[in-house]
Write a structure and sequence with these properties.
The protein is an alpha/beta fold and 403 residues long. Helix 2 runs parallel beside helix 9, helix 3 packs across helix 7 and helix 10 packs across helix 12. The longest helix has 33 residues. The chain has twelve helices and 13 strands. The structure holds pyridoxal-5'-phosphate.
Length: 403
């Protein structure tokens, strides 16, 4: 028998944990030096940004790492460094967030949207088909809301069609597929350290790759002012020689203050991910039993991080979903809805990105997004909070959803 929820729930769904004290101290140390710009170092000194790149590339097991201003800017640098030009085609799953098509548009490339499946991941048959038909040479695969598809099949498709794979790991920092870290399957991976992600520096991004020429281009694009030799997770200097006068400066750097905040968080990342998953599973276990609510089964190979949860309300119309969400909100539980006619806050879908100028052929994305709900799970919620939230959703579903 379910425990009744204590309603209304009164905690804020946007409240992240405070920045850890050692990170605050490290930030204060940087502020005291006045050396906030990544290249403003003492002779022979290493900046916090360089140290973060060393530590994150060790964490990911990548050869090279570049700290950026945001994940969106990292994605843009990734596309440019991969060689994407005006009019090139870039494949991308239809379930993603606005910065992803934004990065593609920024390169003047054409986006080719790929369908999604009931479990919210990319439809691999559609990917195979569209790679063949479009002749695209790039795939920007967004592990949206932490949902990771079968990366072994993705790699096979990429190799069959010679696709350059960029992984958008904004929601999969710390996650794995089949015990291999998310972000190590493709040619480039981009991560976010924006406040709602798994490490929090307000804004920030990290780009990793094993390709020396790509890394050199990304470093120069990011705005290295010919100081690329200060990077320690960079390729040999010979890779920069020709590029240094050919590659423009897009000024997408990270600064030392953010890097200082992130370095201690990286040391705690795996523990934090476990804490997210404990909360996620408490909620998921309860919601799975709720009639009318569908939570996709996740592949055992998918070692995701449950910093948010998605579920669908199959067969429900828009008005019913709105009423359900509104009723949850009145009890303090904030759900987002990917089926809303207008983009709202962080929640928008491909139909809202009208600048894309594309007429996507998608069989299932509309139907799946139309009933998909989304909820943040901040670490400021306790286990009891999670059970209360699940009980509120469950009771509200019982009252509002039609059979
Ligand atoms: C799936 C996805 N990719 C990329 C980004 C871009 O991250 P940032 O806000 O660091 O630019 C976001 C941001 O929320 C995202 O949700």
């Amino acid at each position: 028998m379910d425990r009744g929820a204590r309603t209304p729930f009164s905690k804020d769904f946007t409240q992240q944990e405070p920045i850890p004290e050692d990170a605050i101290q490290q930030a204060v140390n940087v502020l005291r030096t006045g050396r906030l710009h990544r290249y403003n170092t003492m002779p022979d000194g290493k900046s916090e940004t360089t140290l973060l790149e060393e530590e994150f590339s060790d964490y990911q097991g990548s050869e090279y790492c570049l700290a950026c201003a945001s994940c969106g800017s990292a994605l843009y640098l990734a596309l440019k460094s991969a060689g994407v030009h005006t009019g090139d085609k870039v494949l991308c799953n239809a379930f993603t967030l606005a910065p992803v098509p934004g990065a593609i548009e920024n390169t003047n490339a054409d986006i080719v949207l790929v369908d999604i499946k009931e479990d919210y991941t990319i439809d691999l048959d559609d990917l195979d088909r569209k790679a063949e038909r479009s002749g695209a040479k790039y795939l920007l695969l967004s592990h949206m809301r932490g949902h990771i598809t079968d990366m072994d099949i993705v790699r096979k498709i990429c190799s069959a069609h010679k696709l350059f794979l960029i992984e958008d790991c904004a929601h999969t920092m710390g996650a794995s597929w089949a015990n291999r870290k998310s972000g190590t399957f493709g040619d480039i991976a981009c991560f976010s350290t924006q406040t709602y992600k798994h490490m929090n520096s307000g804004e920030g991004g990290l780009l990793t790759t094993n390709h020396p020429a790509v890394a050199a281009r990304a470093i120069i694009f990011s705005g290295s002012y010919m100081l690329y030799k200060d990077h320690t997770r960079r390729p040999d200097l010979k890779f920069f020689e020709v590029l240094k006068t050919q590659v423009p400066n897009y000024s997408c750097r990270m600064d030392n203050l953010r890097a200082a905040i992130l370095r201690p968080q990286l040391r705690e990342l795996d523990d934090q991910c476990e804490r997210w998953n404990t909360r996620y599973h408490l909620i998921e276990n309860k919601l799975k039993a709720v009639p009318g609510l569908f939570i996709p089964e996740r592949d055992v190979q998918e070692q995701f991080i449950g910093s948010s949860i998605q579920f669908s309300l199959p067969g429900q119309d828009g008005n019913t979903i709105l009423a359900f969400i509104e009723n949850c909100r009145e009890q303090g539980v904030v759900l987002k809805w990917f089926g809303a006619p207008e983009p709202d806050g962080y929640t928008s879908v491909y139909k809202h990105w009208q600048y894309m100028n594309t007429n996507p052929e998608l069989m299932n994305a509309d139907r799946i997004l139309a009933t998909m709900c989304d909820m943040r799970i901040p670490l400021t919620f306790t286990d009891t909070d999670c059970l209360d939230i699940a009980a509120i959703i469950s009771q509200t579903a019982g009252r509002w959803l039609k059979d």
